[in-house]
Q: What sequence folds into this?
Protein backbone atom coordinates (compact mmCIF):
# COMPACT_ATOMS: atom_id res chain seq x y z
CA UNK A 1 0.00 0.00 0.00
CA UNK A 2 2.95 2.28 -0.79
CA UNK A 3 0.80 4.60 -2.93
CA UNK A 4 -1.34 5.55 0.04
CA UNK A 5 -0.92 8.67 2.15
CA UNK A 6 -1.44 8.33 5.91
CA UNK A 7 -4.29 10.64 6.96
CA UNK A 8 -4.62 9.46 10.54
CA UNK A 9 -2.68 7.38 13.03
CA UNK A 10 -4.09 6.37 16.40
CA UNK A 11 -4.15 3.60 18.96
CA UNK A 12 -6.29 2.24 21.77
CA UNK A 13 -6.10 -0.74 24.11
CA UNK A 14 -6.85 -3.07 21.19
CA UNK A 15 -4.06 -1.87 18.91
CA UNK A 16 -3.19 0.57 16.15
CA UNK A 17 -5.60 2.36 13.84
CA UNK A 18 -4.69 3.95 10.51
CA UNK A 19 -6.61 5.82 7.82
CA UNK A 20 -4.96 5.75 4.38
CA UNK A 21 -5.83 7.54 1.14
CA UNK A 22 -4.53 7.34 -2.44
CA UNK A 23 -6.75 10.08 -3.82
CA UNK A 24 -9.46 7.72 -5.07
CA UNK A 25 -9.85 5.16 -2.29
CA UNK A 26 -9.80 5.51 1.48
CA UNK A 27 -8.80 2.59 3.72
CA UNK A 28 -9.21 1.79 7.42
CA UNK A 29 -6.36 -0.40 8.64
CA UNK A 30 -5.43 -2.00 11.95
CA UNK A 31 -1.90 -3.03 10.94
CA UNK A 32 0.58 -3.69 8.14
CA UNK A 33 -1.05 -4.98 4.92
CA UNK A 34 -4.44 -4.94 6.65
CA UNK A 35 -7.63 -3.54 5.10
CA UNK A 36 -10.56 -3.45 7.47
CA UNK A 37 -12.60 -1.19 5.21
CA UNK A 38 -12.13 0.34 1.78
CA UNK A 39 -14.22 3.13 0.28
CA UNK A 40 -14.44 4.70 -3.16
CA UNK A 41 -14.74 8.36 -2.15
CA UNK A 42 -16.84 9.19 -5.23
CA UNK A 43 -19.22 6.24 -4.62
CA UNK A 44 -19.10 5.35 -0.91
CA UNK A 45 -22.22 3.19 -1.24
CA UNK A 46 -20.54 0.70 -3.62
CA UNK A 47 -18.87 -2.01 -1.49
CA UNK A 48 -15.25 -2.59 -2.50
CA UNK A 49 -14.45 -5.82 -0.65
CA UNK A 50 -15.94 -9.00 -2.10
CA UNK A 51 -16.90 -10.31 1.35
CA UNK A 52 -19.09 -7.22 1.94
CA UNK A 53 -20.67 -7.75 -1.46
CA UNK A 54 -21.32 -11.39 -0.49
CA UNK A 55 -22.91 -10.43 2.84
CA UNK A 56 -25.31 -8.09 1.03
CA UNK A 57 -26.64 -10.87 -1.19
CA UNK A 58 -28.96 -11.77 1.71
CA UNK A 59 -31.14 -8.96 0.33
CA UNK A 60 -32.38 -11.40 -2.33
CA UNK A 61 -34.26 -13.41 0.29
CA UNK A 62 -35.04 -10.79 2.93
CA UNK A 63 -36.28 -7.23 2.55
CA UNK A 64 -35.35 -5.98 6.01
CA UNK A 65 -37.06 -3.22 7.92
CA UNK A 66 -34.39 -3.46 10.61
CA UNK A 67 -30.82 -4.77 10.72
CA UNK A 68 -28.10 -5.08 13.33
CA UNK A 69 -24.46 -4.80 12.28
CA UNK A 70 -21.80 -6.20 14.61
CA UNK A 71 -18.56 -4.44 13.71
CA UNK A 72 -18.89 -0.98 12.13
CA UNK A 73 -15.41 -0.55 10.69
CA UNK A 74 -15.50 2.14 8.02
CA UNK A 75 -19.24 1.66 7.57
CA UNK A 76 -19.28 -0.20 4.23
CA UNK A 77 -22.42 -2.16 5.13
CA UNK A 78 -24.14 0.96 6.46
CA UNK A 79 -23.42 2.85 3.24
CA UNK A 80 -24.64 0.04 0.99
CA UNK A 81 -27.80 -0.62 3.00
CA UNK A 82 -28.69 3.06 3.19
CA UNK A 83 -28.29 3.37 -0.59
CA UNK A 84 -30.36 0.21 -1.15
CA UNK A 85 -33.25 1.32 1.08
CA UNK A 86 -33.14 4.55 3.06
CA UNK A 87 -36.00 3.35 5.29
CA UNK A 88 -34.07 0.46 6.90
CA UNK A 89 -33.45 0.97 10.60
CA UNK A 90 -29.78 0.20 11.19
CA UNK A 91 -28.13 -0.47 14.55
CA UNK A 92 -24.34 -0.71 14.34
CA UNK A 93 -22.38 -2.04 17.32
CA UNK A 94 -18.66 -1.26 17.51
CA UNK A 95 -16.17 -2.23 20.21
CA UNK A 96 -13.67 0.55 19.51
CA UNK A 97 -14.93 4.06 20.19
CA UNK A 98 -12.20 5.60 18.06
CA UNK A 99 -13.40 3.57 15.06
CA UNK A 100 -16.84 5.16 15.39
CA UNK A 101 -15.31 8.63 15.36
CA UNK A 102 -13.14 7.70 12.36
CA UNK A 103 -16.11 6.35 10.39
CA UNK A 104 -17.88 9.67 10.90
CA UNK A 105 -14.84 11.84 10.17
CA UNK A 106 -13.12 10.00 7.32
CA UNK A 107 -15.67 7.60 5.77
CA UNK A 108 -18.71 9.79 5.11
CA UNK A 109 -20.87 7.69 7.45
CA UNK A 110 -24.52 8.53 6.60
CA UNK A 111 -25.70 9.79 9.98
CA UNK A 112 -29.46 10.12 10.46
CA UNK A 113 -32.49 9.11 12.50
CA UNK A 114 -32.48 5.62 11.00
CA UNK A 115 -28.92 4.87 12.17
CA UNK A 116 -28.08 4.04 15.79
CA UNK A 117 -24.41 3.73 16.73
CA UNK A 118 -23.54 1.79 19.88
CA UNK A 119 -20.10 1.67 21.46
CA UNK A 120 -20.09 -1.76 23.13
CA UNK A 121 -18.66 -5.25 22.94
CA UNK A 122 -20.97 -7.21 20.61
CA UNK A 123 -21.16 -10.14 23.03
CA UNK A 124 -22.27 -7.85 25.86
CA UNK A 125 -24.78 -6.14 23.57
CA UNK A 126 -26.33 -9.48 22.61
CA UNK A 127 -26.33 -10.85 26.16
CA UNK A 128 -28.07 -7.77 27.52
CA UNK A 129 -30.76 -8.11 24.85
CA UNK A 130 -31.90 -4.52 25.24
CA UNK A 131 -32.90 -4.07 21.61
CA UNK A 132 -35.73 -4.94 19.25
CA UNK A 133 -35.32 -8.15 17.27
CA UNK A 134 -33.98 -7.61 13.76
CA UNK A 135 -34.78 -9.00 10.32
CA UNK A 136 -31.09 -9.44 9.48
CA UNK A 137 -28.00 -9.56 11.67
CA UNK A 138 -24.60 -8.99 10.05
CA UNK A 139 -21.56 -10.14 12.05
CA UNK A 140 -18.24 -8.78 10.81
CA UNK A 141 -15.98 -8.76 13.86
CA UNK A 142 -12.30 -8.71 12.97
CA UNK A 143 -9.08 -7.45 14.49
CA UNK A 144 -5.65 -7.28 12.85
CA UNK A 145 -5.25 -10.90 13.99
CA UNK A 146 -8.41 -12.17 12.30
CA UNK A 147 -11.86 -13.33 13.41
CA UNK A 148 -12.82 -12.69 17.02
CA UNK A 149 -12.90 -16.15 18.69
CA UNK A 150 -16.15 -15.25 20.51
CA UNK A 151 -17.91 -15.34 17.17
CA UNK A 152 -17.32 -19.10 17.01
CA UNK A 153 -18.88 -19.95 20.38
CA UNK A 154 -22.26 -21.60 20.95
CA UNK A 155 -23.27 -18.80 23.34
CA UNK A 156 -22.67 -16.16 20.67
CA UNK A 157 -24.65 -18.13 18.06
CA UNK A 158 -27.55 -18.64 20.47
CA UNK A 159 -27.63 -14.94 21.35
CA UNK A 160 -27.65 -14.02 17.66
CA UNK A 161 -30.57 -16.40 17.17
CA UNK A 162 -32.44 -14.77 20.08
CA UNK A 163 -31.82 -11.34 18.59
CA UNK A 164 -33.46 -12.22 15.28
CA UNK A 165 -37.12 -12.32 14.35
CA UNK A 166 -38.53 -15.82 13.76
CA UNK A 167 -37.84 -15.61 10.02
CA UNK A 168 -34.70 -13.50 10.34
CA UNK A 169 -31.34 -14.22 8.73
CA UNK A 170 -27.91 -14.32 10.35
CA UNK A 171 -24.94 -13.41 8.12
CA UNK A 172 -21.45 -14.21 9.40
CA UNK A 173 -18.17 -13.13 7.85
CA UNK A 174 -15.60 -15.80 8.69
CA UNK A 175 -12.27 -16.85 7.21
CA UNK A 176 -11.68 -19.71 4.76
CA UNK A 177 -10.32 -22.10 7.42
CA UNK A 178 -13.71 -22.01 9.14
CA UNK A 179 -15.14 -23.88 6.17
CA UNK A 180 -13.96 -27.07 7.86
CA UNK A 181 -14.93 -26.07 11.42
CA UNK A 182 -17.39 -28.71 12.68
CA UNK A 183 -18.01 -26.86 15.96
CA UNK A 184 -19.22 -23.68 14.28
CA UNK A 185 -21.47 -25.63 11.92
CA UNK A 186 -22.87 -27.65 14.83
CA UNK A 187 -23.61 -24.47 16.78
CA UNK A 188 -25.50 -23.03 13.84
CA UNK A 189 -27.41 -26.28 13.30
CA UNK A 190 -28.67 -26.12 16.87
CA UNK A 191 -30.39 -22.82 16.09
CA UNK A 192 -31.10 -22.74 12.35
CA UNK A 193 -32.63 -25.14 9.84
CA UNK A 194 -31.11 -23.64 6.68
CA UNK A 195 -27.37 -22.91 6.53
CA UNK A 196 -25.60 -21.87 3.34
CA UNK A 197 -22.16 -20.43 2.75
CA UNK A 198 -20.05 -18.78 0.09
CA UNK A 199 -16.26 -18.91 -0.31
CA UNK A 200 -15.16 -15.58 -1.79
CA UNK A 201 -12.22 -14.94 -4.03
CA UNK A 202 -10.64 -12.99 -1.18
CA UNK A 203 -10.61 -16.02 1.10
CA UNK A 204 -13.62 -15.20 3.26
CA UNK A 205 -16.21 -17.80 4.27
CA UNK A 206 -19.53 -15.94 4.41
CA UNK A 207 -22.28 -17.89 6.17
CA UNK A 208 -26.05 -17.40 5.94
CA UNK A 209 -28.40 -19.05 8.46
CA UNK A 210 -32.18 -18.84 8.85
CA UNK A 211 -35.34 -20.62 9.88
CA UNK A 212 -37.57 -18.96 7.30
CA UNK A 213 -39.65 -21.71 5.60
CA UNK A 214 -38.51 -20.91 2.07
CA UNK A 215 -34.87 -21.22 3.09
CA UNK A 216 -32.16 -19.47 1.08
CA UNK A 217 -32.42 -21.09 -2.34
CA UNK A 218 -33.73 -17.80 -3.77
CA UNK A 219 -30.16 -16.50 -3.62
CA UNK A 220 -29.29 -18.86 -6.50
CA UNK A 221 -32.07 -17.49 -8.73
CA UNK A 222 -30.56 -15.66 -11.71
CA UNK A 223 -33.39 -13.14 -11.95
CA UNK A 224 -32.95 -12.28 -8.27
CA UNK A 225 -29.21 -11.93 -8.79
CA UNK A 226 -29.66 -9.58 -11.74
CA UNK A 227 -32.14 -7.41 -9.85
CA UNK A 228 -29.86 -7.08 -6.83
CA UNK A 229 -26.83 -6.44 -9.04
CA UNK A 230 -28.57 -3.34 -10.40
CA UNK A 231 -29.69 -2.22 -6.95
CA UNK A 232 -26.28 -2.39 -5.23
CA UNK A 233 -24.10 -1.92 -8.34
CA UNK A 234 -22.24 -5.21 -7.84
CA UNK A 235 -21.99 -8.32 -10.05
CA UNK A 236 -23.85 -10.65 -7.67
CA UNK A 237 -23.54 -13.75 -9.87
CA UNK A 238 -19.75 -13.42 -9.80
CA UNK A 239 -19.73 -13.00 -6.03
CA UNK A 240 -21.83 -16.13 -5.46
CA UNK A 241 -20.05 -18.56 -7.79
CA UNK A 242 -19.29 -20.81 -4.80
CA UNK A 243 -22.57 -20.48 -2.89
CA UNK A 244 -24.08 -23.73 -1.58
CA UNK A 245 -25.50 -25.45 1.53
CA UNK A 246 -22.78 -25.77 4.16
CA UNK A 247 -21.95 -29.46 4.57
CA UNK A 248 -18.69 -30.81 5.90
CA UNK A 249 -17.02 -33.25 3.53
A:
Amino acid sequence: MSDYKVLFTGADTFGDIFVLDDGHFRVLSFGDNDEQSKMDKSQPFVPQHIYVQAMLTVLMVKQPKSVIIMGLGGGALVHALRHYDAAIKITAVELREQVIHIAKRFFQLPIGKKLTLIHQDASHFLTAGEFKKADVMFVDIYSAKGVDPKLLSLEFTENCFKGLKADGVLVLNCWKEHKNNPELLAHLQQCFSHIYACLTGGGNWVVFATNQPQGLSGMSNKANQQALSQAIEVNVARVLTRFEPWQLI
